[in-house]
């Protein structure tokens, strides 16, 4: 298969979808890999390293899209890429369709095959291609939150871990999944007092067993959230519903309950955000203030640590890329139920329920689409 890796052009997105090691593995299996010049520069991988691994370098993004059967990316295509996408071209990347109606309609109109990292799902309901970036984002949420608690950035002026004689900050984490668990562990490691909320009692029992002593678990509901936000210094939104919009757990009126300088970090921003006043920001301009509450809502947080993120992402995606390249997307999705769940939009049809529900679009059964591909 002919595989193309364009340079990411989203604001301050320094990750790349494939490392030189990944290129070498694909080449060993007989596939052709085209990499856009300087695509790996932000992650610390030179063009020479890619060439040494067997990649062919192309200077422009137009050439990459023009030649590739499968495009591997990190972030969803942005508007200037839409016209480059060909009918029946396979795109394997994070899409988060439920948070962007224009992107959804653009991919439907282009007739592309959109296989989303975030909805590839194992039998145990885990999301193997979200896990590495969730681990990075969960840890970064605390790192960034601690920074924006400082007074020069309009925070409360609190050191997360405190010092002898001074109480540590109070951190509230909403969601006990990968992001929430990593955030809680990171905050606890820095000495903060952490409250970790989730709606699943079995999950809370597990977290209570494995978390440090300065992490308390609590059932997530509106009453408890309203009470906890009054005292929290840093609030991390870490809620995910695979392929669908995140629910608003922190509502607009709750901001009035918070103390001035409280910091909100919404890791779910690329799924619409679980904080109602959240709107996507960038690494260039990461925060804004509403009711004296600092909002940090960067939609590609792991892009700030691109070397770590790129290597972690390729470790997770490469086995699936190999299956798609070796078998073609149709056969690979028939053989692997995890990959089949990654299909969101195929040949102008929405085949993932969360996306169809988000924008009130007709849903076509993915099995019907795969059967049609056989007939074609």
Q: Say what the CATH topology of the largest domain is.
A: Rossmann fold
Q: So what's the CATH class of the largest domain?
A: Alpha Beta
Classify the secondary structure makeup into a structural class: alpha/beta
Amino- and carboxy-terminal Cα gap: 19 Å
**How many domains would you count in the coordinates?**
2
Gross CATH architecture of the largest domain: 3-Layer(aba) Sandwich
Shape: globular
Order of helices and strands: EHEHEHEHEHEHEHEHEHEEEEHHHEEHH
Strand adjacency order, main sheet: 3-2-1-4-5-6-14-15
Q: What are the low-pLDDT stretches, counting only 5+ consecutive residues below 50?
A: none
Count of alpha and pi helical runs: 14
Number of strands: 15
């Amino acid at each position: 298969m002919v595989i193309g890796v364009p340079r990411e052009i989203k604001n301050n997105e320094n990750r790349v979808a494939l490392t030189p090691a990944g290129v070498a593995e694909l080449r060993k299996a007989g596939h052709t890999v085209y990499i856009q010049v300087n695509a790996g520069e932000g992650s610390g991988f030179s063009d020479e390293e890619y060439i040494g691994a067997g990649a062919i370098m192309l200077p422009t993004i137009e050439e990459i899209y023009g030649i590739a059967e499968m495009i591997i990316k990190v972030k969803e295509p942005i508007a200037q890429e839409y016209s480059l996408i060909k009918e029946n071209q396979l795109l394997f990347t994070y899409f988060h369709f439920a948070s962007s109606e224009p992107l959804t309609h653009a991919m439907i109109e282009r007739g592309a095959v959109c296989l989303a990292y975030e909805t590839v799902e194992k039998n145990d309901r885990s999301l193997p291609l979200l896990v590495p970036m969730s681990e990075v984002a969960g840890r970064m949420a605390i790192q960034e939150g601690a920074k924006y608690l400082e007074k020069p950035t309009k925070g409360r002026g609190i050191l997360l871990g405190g010092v002898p004689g001074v109480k540590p900050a109070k951190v509230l984490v909403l969601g006990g999944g990968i992001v929430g668990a990593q955030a809680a562990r990171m905050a606890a490691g820095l000495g903060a007092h952490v409250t970790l909320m989730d709606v699943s009692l079995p999950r809370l029992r597990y977290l209570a067993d494995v978390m440090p002593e300065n992490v308390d678990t609590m059932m997530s509901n509106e009453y408890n959230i309203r009470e906890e936000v009054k005292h929290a210094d840093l609030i991390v939104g870490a809620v995910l519903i695979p392929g669908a919009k995140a629910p608003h757990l922190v509502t607009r009126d709750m901001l009035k309950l918070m103390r001035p300088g409280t910091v909100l970090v919404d890791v779910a921003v690329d799924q619409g955000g679980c904080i109602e006043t959240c709107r996507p920001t960038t690494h260039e301009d990461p925060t804004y203030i509403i009711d004296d509450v600092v909002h940090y809502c960067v939609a590609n947080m792991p892009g700030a640590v691109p070397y770590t993120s790129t290597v972690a992402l390729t470790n997770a995606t490469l086995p699936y890329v190999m299956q798609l390249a070796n078998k073609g997307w149709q056969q690979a999705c028939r053989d692997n139920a995890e990959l089949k769940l990654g299909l969101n939009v195929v040949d102008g049809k929405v085949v993932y329920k969360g996306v169809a529900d988000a924008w009130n679009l007709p849903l076509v059964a993915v099995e019907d689409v795969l059967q049609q591909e056989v007939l074609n």
